[in-house]
């Protein structure tokens, strides 16, 4: 008995290709905005001095160094996710950023965000979104997808050298 496979319908393929794009664009927007607050003081943020002061209040030391690191992870990581460049690395850095935020600040405040001190429910969602990108990749509509042939050739070359 022969089996034939039918090609995947175009609409389903397009939806599957668009899904990681939507995920990356939303995450990118969120983290570029938050990174801009920390890095430049945009959107009512405190910039590096305000972020460092907040970190000092949480006993995170050295506060200025961590303020710069977090601001760069969020801003540059958000841009990288939005365009789909080094997406898995950017998503991993942002997931770690959010996990540390839960451990240092949001965790003791409970799960629900509606509490007066804010819980970790949104951090949890953002971490899950990042893990999704780590597991599935950036998708067809990304710079990463376009670089796959180049990376594969270089990886094969490196493997031959070893």
Walk me through this protein's architecture:
This protein has helices at residues 10-40, 47-57, 63-83, 87-106, 121-136, 143-161. With 162 residues, it is mostly helical. The chain has one domain (11-161). Helix 1 (10-40) packs antiparallel against helix 3 (63-83), helix 2 packs across helix 3 (63-83) and helix 4 (87-106) packs antiparallel against helix 5. The longest helix has 31 residues, at 10-40. It starts with 9 loop residues before the first helix and ends with a helix.
In a few lines, what is going on in this structure?
With 162 residues, the chain is mainly α. It is built from six helices and no strands.
Summarize the topology.
Blueprint: H1 10-40, H2 47-57, H3 63-83, H4 87-106, H5 121-136, H6 143-161
Transmembrane segments: 21-43, 63-82, 89-112, 124-143
Main location: membrane
Subcellular location: Cell membrane
Reading the helices and strands in chain order gives HHHHHH
| Rg result | 19 Å
Low-confidence stretches: none
- Globally, the shape reads elongated
| Helical/strand content category | mainly alpha
Number of helices: 6
Number of domains: 1
N-to-C span: 45 Å
Arithmetic mean of pLDDT: 90
Q: Work out the strand percent.
A: under 5%
Largest sheet: none
Please report the total strand number as a whole number. 0
Residues in helices, as a percent range: over 70%
């Amino acid at each position: 008995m022969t089996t034939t496979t039918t090609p995947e319908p175009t609409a389903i393929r397009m939806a599957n290709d668009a899904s990681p794009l939507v995920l990356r664009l939303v995450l990118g927007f969120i983290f570029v905005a938050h990174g801009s607050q920390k890095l430049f003081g945009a959107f009512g943020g405190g910039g590096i001095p305000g972020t460092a002061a907040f970190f000092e209040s949480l006993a995170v030391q050295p506060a200025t160094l961590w303020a710069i690191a977090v601001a760069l992870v969020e801003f540059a990581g958000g841009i990288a996710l939005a365009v789909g460049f080094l997406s898995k690395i950017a998503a991993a850095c942002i997931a770690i950023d959010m996990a540390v935020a839960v451990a240092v600040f949001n965790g003791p405040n409970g799960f629900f965000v509606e509490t007066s001190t804010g819980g970790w429910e949104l951090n949890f969602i953002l971490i899950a979104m990042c893990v999704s990108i780590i597991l599935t990749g950036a998708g067809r509509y990304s710079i990463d997808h376009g670089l796959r042939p180049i990376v594969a050739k270089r990886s094969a070359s490196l493997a031959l050298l070893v």
